[in-house]
Amino acid sequence: MDFWKLFIVALMPVLKVLLITAVGTVLAINRFNILGETARKNLNIMVFYVFSPTLVCSSLAETITLKNVVILWFMPLNILLTFVIGSVLGLLVIKLTRVRHHLQGLVLGCCAAGNLGNLPIIIVPAVCTQSGNPFGDVNVCYKNALAYASLSMALGSVYIWCYAYNLVRVYSPKITNEVKVDDGSMINQESSIKTDPENPTTSSTGLALVSADDRSQTEDHVKHFEIQYAVRDGQVEEVPKEKTLMNQLKTLLQKINLKVLFTPSTIGAIVGLVIGIVPQFRKLLIGDKAPLRVVEDSVVMVGYACIPVMTLLVGANLIKGLTGLVKQLPLIVGITVVRCIALPAIGVGVVKGAVRFGLIHPDPLYKFLLLLQFALPPAVAMSTITQLFGAGEGECSVIMFATYSCAAISVTLWSTFYMWLVLALMREENV
């Protein structure tokens, strides 16, 4: 198949995303103000708690079986590699552009987390429906594409909300307006504490003001000392290394917030996998003859709202990105190069290496999706995450505007090249 035909096949799904994004942008302009700031925040909450988990759950329950899980075992590793490589490249961007501390989580998240949800589930099945697609029978291709894209969406959701969510949370500025005094009461720093001009770090009440960062560092040093040393009979003794490691592990486990790890999308993915894999649940909920099929149908109807809503929100959030484009230019260029050039190129080496060692299921459509996972723009969920924490919203909008504008071209070109590469690999295997 010649390059031009592959280009047309790759272009059509990207155009669909662009059209829906453009509608979201129009709805957000001041003249209409349908997707204003309040509406966007409310929709983001709906996506986080309702639309995303139901879409992940229903897609996995319908398309993933135990056999599929065994065949597609490499996909979780492939997505993990996109996050690891993206994080390393993100650290390089931070080093070169000297990003401010409170934006470092956003930069790392955008470099590591690609749009593994609504773009693959739009692009990959749509490629199968194009006349002259390189992946064989339309019906078989579409069914497999939906299964692969659903698993990609579910795994991507777990990685994004477990990793990128916590990155933004950790780097978000923590502002505390209250300080505890000796009698246990609370006073407001801004209104009640006056700084002594001769000693800026001490208030007129004699209370030393300590920043949240200094306080947390002091507590960490104390805990580190307590882990490594023990006081017995007035003497300081070093704790054996085995006990030190155990104490450090206990401290780490105490800091883990399970509520953060098990986000609604993660729970939806777990429920969907259980329904799809366990035959008893599958017979009960999935299929025309299932006794409780109305439950699954209802979940599917709610979940289908996720893709258009998230894509509309991308377009609506781009409005804010137009104003700060020049100011954040070095940062934007760095993230755009990572997501649109560096990662897709590295992905070719990763997937070709996996094919060479026989780690990947031979289906060419599956290989195409694994390659595509490296070439996607930042996850739409990054906009939701920044709005949930109220940190870096403007910068995130600028990044989304720039990367998605470039992705309209880069995803099309990389998709074309990936299809050509998959066909070439298939010919090599048949020789």
Describe this structure in words.
- By secondary structure, the protein is mostly helical.
- The chain has one domain: Na+/H+ antiporter like fold (Up-down Bundle).
- Helix content is 73%, strand content 5%.
- It is built from 19 helices and 6 strands.
- It has helices spanning 3-28, 37-63, 66-71, 74-97, 101-112, 118-129, 138-171, 189-192, 212-228, 241-255, 258-261, 264-277, 279-285, 293-303, 306-321, 329-356, 364-372, 381-389, 393-430; strands at 178-180, 186-188, 195-196, 199-203, 229-232, 235-238.
- It has a two-stranded antiparallel ribbon. Strands 3-4 form a two-stranded antiparallel ribbon.
- A hairpin with a 5-residue loop joins strand 1 (178-180) and strand 2 (186-188).
- Helix 2 (37-63) packs across helix 7 (138-171).
- The longest helix is centred in the last third of the chain and has 38 residues, at 393-430.
- It is globular.
- It is found in: Endoplasmic reticulum membrane.
Main features:
globular, mainly alpha, two-stranded antiparallel sheet, Na+/H+ antiporter like fold
Rg, rounded, reads 25 Å
Largest sheet: 2 strands, antiparallel
Strand content: under 5%
Domains (count): 1
CATH architecture: Up-down Bundle
CATH class annotation:
Mainly Alpha
Protein name: Protein PIN-LIKES 3
Membrane topology: Multi-pass membrane protein
GO biological process, one term: auxin-activated signaling pathway
Subcellular location: Endoplasmic reticulum membrane
